[in-house]
Design goal:
The protein is an alpha/beta fold. It is built from eleven helices and eleven strands. β5, α6 and β6 form a beta-alpha-beta unit.
Length: 353
Amino acid sequence: MESNINYNPSVTSVATSPLGGTWGAADYKKGQPRWCPGCGDHFFLASLHKALAEIGVPPYETAVISGIGCSSRLPHYMATYGMNTIHGRAAAIATGAKVTNPKLTVWQVSGDGDGLAIGGNHFIHANRRNIDLNMILLNNRIYGLTKGQYSPTSPRGFVSKSSPYGTVEDPFRPAELCFGARGHFFARAVATDAPGTIEILKAAYHHKGAAVCEILQNCVIFNNGTHDDVYSAPNRKKNAIYLKHGEPMIFGENNEYGLMQEGFGIKVVKIGENGITVDDLLVHDAHCEDNTLQLKLAMMEGPDFPVALGVIRDVDAPTYDDAVNAQIEEIKAKKPYHNFAELLETNDIWEVK
């Protein structure tokens, strides 16, 4: 892994910078980002710097690991440990880094192509195993670095360089894939919404286990406008709902709409009509182990439903890295030897003179 910092193992985890005081966003910055002007990666990178400063884990205890793609250039712009791996393998490398160094805070960054096509198997199993990773999925529904082919999240009928007559495939929906892999944390934000992005990044850090954050972002060159319904603040006010644990599900330009349960589904209602009050609305429970309602919320899409933003699922569960390291310690304690020299001494020993 490359690093732009001087690591001193004697330094504690107190969130102070070399100049004194707390860590600031600038302490996590490195280099000049090389993305197209207006690319959603710029917005996300700025939010990540700010979120890390608020979290307070020092750069020398942080690793950012990516695969290949436009978004996967991100580790180059982080003053932390970082690694730009091969296509689709970010989760595999991040897993190894976390399991072998449990105290390291690991952020995995992938695009929708890198993370869900060649990297899809790793994505599934990192969630199933519940490895303590912060898994960022930057979703612009296109392959940008390789110049505009459709990706696993491109909608059916999407016209691209690799589908000139429109795709004949249904896309992956990241939330559905995460939930289906028994994921315990899923959140969503829009790249242009810095407060919303910072909020879910902080929640992902505090979650113990695999934490998937889907970031809806724009590719101005090959898929401009793909998230227009929620990309601007006015559109988010109309077309998105911010879910907060323990709060009623309200949305709209004037908070005039809400979500209610209808049978086994969800319906949009207008507050004040037909005697409906805020007390009739669903209250978000991100910690409910039964993910039925959380998945329905995560899968909502227009024009009849708002896009769900915020932390949708956040449930505690045993993590792979804790379990495997505990197992190692348990087995070591039962063995009569703990290193190679002790192993040799467990057998008959004689000296040849």
